[in-house]
Amino acid sequence: MITVNNVGLRYGERKLFEDVNLKFTPGNCYGVIGANGAGKSTFLKILSGEIEPDTGEVVISRGIRMSILKQDHYQYDKCTVLDAVIMGNQRLYEIMLEKEELYSKADFSDEDGMKVADLEDEFGKMNGWEAESEASTILQGLGIGTNLHGNVMYELQGVEKVKVLLAQAIFGKPGILILDEPTNHLDLQAITWLEEFLIDFEGIVIVVTHDRKFVNNICTHITDVDYGSIKLFVGNYDFWYESSQLALQMARDQNKKKEEKAKQLQDFIARFSANASKSKQATSRKKMLEKISLDDIQPSNRKYPYVEFKPEREVGNDILTVVDLSKTIDGEKVLDKVNFTVYKGDKIAFVGPNEAAYTALLKILSGELEPDSGHYKWGITVTNAYFPKDSSPYFDDQELNIVDWLRQYSNDKADSYVRGFLGKMLFSGEEALKPLKVLSGGERVRCMLAKIMLCHANVLLLDQPTNHLDLEAITALNNGLRDYSSNVLFTSHDRQLVQTIANRIIELTPTNMVDVSVTYDEYLESIAI
Predict the structure, then answer these.
(1) Residue 515: which domain range?
(2) Which pLDDT score, from 0 to 100, does residue 285 have?
(3) Which of 85, 126, 250, 320 could crosslink 135 through cysteines, CB 3.0-4.6 Å?
(4) Same domain, yes or no, for 89 and 135?
């Protein structure tokens, strides 16, 4: 168990949080959420002992080993892959080295023999004889084949190193597992394996991630870092979000009878409990949800952007035709005779590992890049708006403030009109006058979303629009695209966004193109079969 007693932390005049009192118990997975800069990663560092709080203490039950996902991808460059994983249990690795050193002694003494016997006993109790087998199983689950297990770490690609460090963190059945953005750079197969591993994990898992589907699949609790406080709530992210919205609705309607509110709550909990699926973690979450009372549901103080795409006119029947489109970039053929037609109502997600191809395709369709061969044709009723994967060229004029930047893209130049769109993106008052040069990645994305909202386009071209966004902004974007009445062509690492928005999936493979009118989950089921 981890007990957090009266913990507080300040940076100068800025209060991150204070009077935090929480308990984390085995068998549960806690998703830590909060706006960018709220202190999520800092809170993990306090729990791990890397940072000392200004007030209070963190107490960890005696004898429990904590494991933390390392972020330094070069730290283990001189180690073999298997050794790097086994180092996740530092004491076990030390015993292995000490045994090896003793056994290799030319003058092996009786004292050495007694020492080795003690080490062998400790080694056996830590399942040391299965260490290499366990490390290998974890690596294979994450997609690192046995052909790489004897390699030195510096020989691996960046994504492979990420997987090895994740394997290191979960190796050896730690009692507490702290993971900061564990799904970054992972492929779908590795994410699925990790989800199944964590669902069956018997210890405490505390995780920060922007992958909503991951949080929804594995978490039994949400740890909300919000406006100087940290609170625990039962359920996954969707339950937390919808329950906080329900609480706001109830608070606005104080005249409603309590019985009516209670019925609303019971219906809401029943719906989420019924959705709790096969895993034991989901089953335990269902039991916890059923115990929630009206007083447990609290509105969040969190501010959400408001994303609303309103097309100025409806599209006609002719939207987009792509014929034999090909493109080579830096000597690599990324598009090879691509053909498809977009129909009214299509919301198309481009999925799969070939990200360079999708970026090139969306650049071509937006007019920013010329194809080498083939052609495409937009319908005469179409106006499109493009969200690029790399928006930095749009912010080259560092002297402009946000209002003047957005005004460039507006037909109505009035301050009140432009500020209206920025306000929806949480740039109000003095925030809207911030110079471009101080904007974070997430703030730039919100600026780009305001620009696209301003266009009133009837076709959206979006290349990884959730990159750099916090969960609140991703949720707002998801809601905006769900309610958008016209066509979308997009790519995204956010699996929940793809599942809830797309009604058609296109994957470009090295040999052919898969194009099916199904949801993302249906598509994954079909390729699994």
Answers:
(1) 320-528
(2) 59
(3) 85
(4) yes
